Structure formats: structure tokens, C-alpha cells
Amino acid sequence: MLPDPAQLAAAQLRAYNAHDLDAFCACYDPEVRVLEADGRESLRGMEAFRARYAALFQGWEEVGAEVDQRIVAPPHAIDDERWWRSRPATGERRSGRVLVRYTVGALGIHTVQFFPVEPS
């Protein structure tokens, strides 16, 4: 039986918003793949995944996201997500909206695909 995609999507979002890299990565399969909207693979494996998010959490003082709607169609969860990053000291802020499809396997989220709705 596969893990519940809604529970994993919620757990990784909580960890992301807490900037808890270990808890965030624990939601993902060691062979995680990240895909762009066109299906092109932009990242594969936990080492690259961890490095990407470590840089994000270290590079921005504030990083967060909120899910406006989550659709669950096992083994997928699709989030309609608003995200932001900011550096209060400089006033720099980026934000946007993206649909994110999480596909779950036996070891956690094994594929993430991003579909930008609003540019950053």
C-alpha cells in the first residue's frame, strides 16, 4: 500500500514553511525526480534535491507557500500553490502561483512536476 499523497503533500508543505530541510527531504523518495511543465527533468536524486532546497532556505530570509486547493487522485496530489520569498533587510520579494503535482511511490514522493500559473 502506498503512502497517502495528501498526507505527504501536507507534511512537506509544513516542513517547507518551517525551513526544516531534514523533515522536508524525509517526505521524498531517495530517487526523487523534479520535472518542468514540459516534462523535462530538471533534477534527480536526493543529493541534488537537498542541495537545491538548502540553497533556497539559506539564500532567503523568508520562504513560504500556501495551498489554495489540493486535489487528490492517488497516487497523485495536485496543489494550487501561492509561494513567496523575501529578504526583509533589502526589501527584495518574489512571489508567484504554481500548480504542483506530487506523485507518490512506496518510499515517499518520487516525482514532483511544476506548472507555473503566474510568473515570479
What this model shows, in words?
- Strand 5 (92-105) and strand 6 (108-118) form a beta hairpin.
- A six-stranded mixed beta sheet has the order 2-1-6-5-4-3.
- It is built from three helices and six strands, in the order ααββαββββ.
- The radius of gyration is 14 Å and the shape is globular.
- The termini are far apart.
- It has helices at 5-18, 21-26, 46-59; strands at 28-35, 41-44, 62-73, 76-87, 92-105, 108-118.
- The protein has a single domain (5-118), classed as Nuclear Transport Factor 2, Chain: A (Roll), CATH 3.10.450.
- It has 120 residues and is α+β, with helices and mostly antiparallel strands.
- Helix content is 28%, strand content 51%.
Mean pLDDT: 96
Number of domain units: 1
Describe the sheet with the most strands. 6 strands, mixed
How many alpha or pi helices?
A: 3
**Run of helices and strands:** HHEEHEEEE
* Poorly predicted segments: none
The assigned CATH architecture is: Roll
Output the radius of gyration: 14 Å
Label the structural class: alpha+beta
- What's the CATH class, please? Alpha Beta
How do the strands line up in the largest sheet? Answer: 2-1-6-5-4-3
Number of strands: 6
Euclidean distance between termini CA atoms: 37 Å
CATH topology: Nuclear Transport Factor 2, Chain: A
- Helix content range: 25-40%
Strand content: over 45%
The global form is globular
